[in-house]
Amino acid sequence: MTEAAKQDGPIPDVPMFDYRAQLKPLRAQMLAAIDRVLDSGTLILGGEVEAFERAFAEAHGGGHAVGVNSGTDALVIAFLALGVQPGDEIVTVANTAVPTVSAIRMVGAMPVFVDVDPRTALMDLEQVAAALGKRTKVVVPVHLYGNMVDVDRLRTVVAGRGIAIVEDCAQAQGATLRGRPAGTFGDIAAYSFYPTKNLGAYGDGGACLTRDAQLAERLRSHRMYGFAGAYYAERDGINSRLDPIQAAILGVKLPHLPQWVERRRALAALYDRSLPPHVPRVVAAADVAHGYHLYVVRVADRDRVRDELRARGVMTGVHYPHAIHRMRAYAALPGAQQSLPHSEALAREVLSLPMWPELGEDAVQRVAAAVAAVVR
Question: Domain total for the chain?
Answer without folding.
Answer: 2
